[in-house]
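User: Can you help me understand a structure? I only have the sequence.
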Amino acid sequence: MLRATEGIAVGTYSNASTSSGNILTSGSVGIGTTTPQAALHVVGSTITAPQVLQLEIDVSGTAPQSTNSTWTGIPYTTVAINTITGATTSNYGTGSVSLPAGQYEIELSQDFLNNAAFTATIRLNVPSLSLLQYGSSVFTGGATWMPVTARLHTYLTLPSTTSVDFEYWVNVVAYLASNNSFSTPFKGGYVTVYRLQ
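Assistant: Let's start by predicting it. Here is the structure, written out as tokens:
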């Protein structure tokens, strides 16, 4: 039993009075109501789950090397979740989605396989607004086969339903002697879009 000096008790206390602000384990708790209909009954504002869109690229996903100085849509392989009302993902395989008017937080992460000496970066492109947001650039020397990761975290306000593109750019400096191709630059990645309002 826990008992405060002003008569608030948690547990069983023989002298507890319901009129002196006691908390009794035998009753129900009401927040915003004096007549709770369940063990915990809350009346008032509700908390809703955030609206989220997430695209992923499988670790086995492949894509051709983008031509030097050419931005290419990230070829996502999966729509992991889409609870954003009005968002369409029919072109997700080319890194493009359509988002309704609103404010968004966007996290973009892309792994590139370190199988050559190259520079790579990612960006968010909103052509209708002439808006470009660039992520971090990565450089690899081709010394290992471990992936390197480019990242982008940004906020976006859309005045109306708008196409948003997620793109990458690669500039190969030199291939590894044992791998004279660059046909599999991706080793996983994702973009997550949160609708803030």
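Now, to help you interpret it: The chain has two domains: 2-42, 51-195. Residues 2-42 form one domain. Let me know which part you'd like to focus on.
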